[in-house]
Design goal:
The protein is mainly alpha-helical and 203 residues long. The protein contains five helices and no strands.
Length: 203
């Protein structure tokens, strides 16, 4: 019938939907986790300082600490923070090969640090249960060494995933950033630990 208005909606018309933005909270979650981990380390640091303040001699004569090897280890670990940052910078520029190069170097430096720590344990001449100082020493450095090992696994995981074409790129590098943040955390904790256990102990 002419003049009738067709009120039937056009089902074939394309409807544009604005994509909803989904924020990536993985980095925020990691930072929150690391804050809780730092509080745990802070508890160890406070206990160590309290024991040191109350002890007649700290450390006792049979548990003296060495400075040279830990100092070299410190230089290696702190330097690795700069190296891993080069890898993060490379992937943000779309340079996957640069990412791999700098992360391989970082992994090697982390492995050297752990090897140096194991060598230190084997040559100290005292064990975990020798006295209160040795108990604190092995607990704090060992717990940190565990975190270094976990960070090393994260770095190796990034290297493994980077083998897949397009897995990381200039616009897709959250996993790389998370590994870098974790590694910086490990370095910061070690600087505090080195200062308290080694430098302060020798004063």
């Amino acid at each position: 019938m002419q003049g009738t208005i067709d009120s039937t909606p056009d089902t074939t018309a394309e409807i544009e939907f604005q994509p909803s933005e989904h924020h990536d909270f993985r980095v925020l979650g990691l930072i929150t986790f690391l804050c809780s981990e730092f509080l745990m380390f802070a508890g160890f640091f406070v206990l160590f300082l309290v024991f040191r303040a109350e002890a007649a001699a700290w450390p006792p004569e049979e548990t003296e600490v060495e400075l040279l090897l830990p100092a070299v280890n410190t230089i290696i670990l702190v330097s690795s923070s700069f190296v891993i940052h080069y890898g993060d910078t490379a992937i943000k520029q779309g340079d996957v090969k640069g990412l791999r190069k700098w992360y391989i170097i970082t992994a090697a430096m982390g492995a050297i640090f752990l090897a140096g720590q194991v060598y230190e344990y084997l040559t100290l001449g005292y064990g975990l249960t020798t006295n209160l100082f040795s108990n604190c020493f092995y607990l704090m450095t060992g717990f940190h060494g565990l975190h270094v090992f976990i960070g090393l696994l994260l770095i190796l995981g990034v290297l493994w995933r980077s083998r897949r074409e397009g897995h990381y790129g200039a616009e897709k590098h959250t996993g790389v950033e998370m590994a870098e943040i974790y590694w910086h955390f490990v370095d910061v904790v070690w600087i505090v630990l080195f200062s308290i256990i080694y430098l302060l102990t020798l004063i």
